[in-house]
Amino acid sequence: MGAHASGLSPARAVGLGVVQGPAELLPVSSSAHLSLLPWLAGWRWNELDPEARKSFEVALHAGAAAALLVGQRRVIAEELREFDARRAAVVALSFVPPAIIGYGLERQIERRLGGPRATAIGLVAGAVAMAVADRRPQVRGPGDATPGDGLALGLAQATALAPGVSRNGATLAAARWRRFTRAHANLLSRTVALPVIVGATVLKGTRLRRRGIDPALAQAMAAGVAASFASTLASQKLIDLVERDRALWPYAAYRVALAGAVLYRLGRR
Question: Quick one: pLDDT at residue 50?
Fold first, then answer.
């Protein structure tokens, strides 16, 4: 079914793109919001081809990543100046688990865990992990990351393939569990995210090119990507808010509340 007929009009794509910006910068699972908001609003979202839905989601993530490259260019330039073999190993090991699991099991995960109930469970699981990990001491900072930390972050990113878990939340939890400060945990989370987003974009783009893309979906996707880029760029100050020495429990509480709203609606059906 075409994108417009299934509820993904350019206007709705722009709305989801606007949500993507702040949801991407906070550990609240942007993917959960992109799947749950259409469901809560009553759009005929499930009638859109699952591969097309996932491609649209990845495209919005790509728009957000492009905005981060622009908005955080000074921080990125500083990180690149200090880039060495150890940092390269951290980034590489953080990429391997999600790349292997995502390439091999992504479609099975989408098919079996793509519903609202599974997403709500993922939101709660991620919230618990964040709240527990944030109780660890903050003793590690810039320059302390090892290849073992990279592997831990990579395994966390792999768990985020389950809807609702959240890549940002999972990597924050992993970094805090390994006793990084909250500020550096956020920096690590953003650093290891970029290769995964680029890899997912290339994979989805290749699949779309092979199978062809419905013109209506292409139009909606372009509108959503532009909105995602703009909203992420406009939401840059949220990074400073998260990177201050603030506990993660408010985000965990929000995630549980969203999951509760979903489960409540499911229970009333």
Answer: 73
Domain regions of the chain by residue span: 10-268
240 close to 31: Cβ distance less than 8 angstroms: no
Is residue 140 helix, strand or coil?
strand
Q: What is the dihedral of CA 177, 259, 116, 227, to 10 degrees?
A: -80
Q: Which residue has the higher pLDDT, 26 or 7?
A: 26
84, two tokens: 């060495």
Query: What pLDDT sits at residue 61?
Result: 84
| Nearest-5° Cα angle at 153, 150 to 157 | 135
Q: What is the pLDDT of residues 55-90, one digit of tens each?
A: 888 888 888 888 888 887 887 788 777 778 888 898
Which residue blocks in 160-181 are alpha helix, DSSP H? Answer: 167-177
Report in angstroms the alpha-carbon separations of 104 from 168, 181, 203, 204, 269.
Answer: 22, 34, 12, 14, 34
Give burial (CB, 10 Å; 0-12/13-18/19+) of 83.
exposed
- CA-closest candidate to residue 64, choices 215, 179, 245, 226: 226
In this structure, which amino acid lies at residue 100?
I
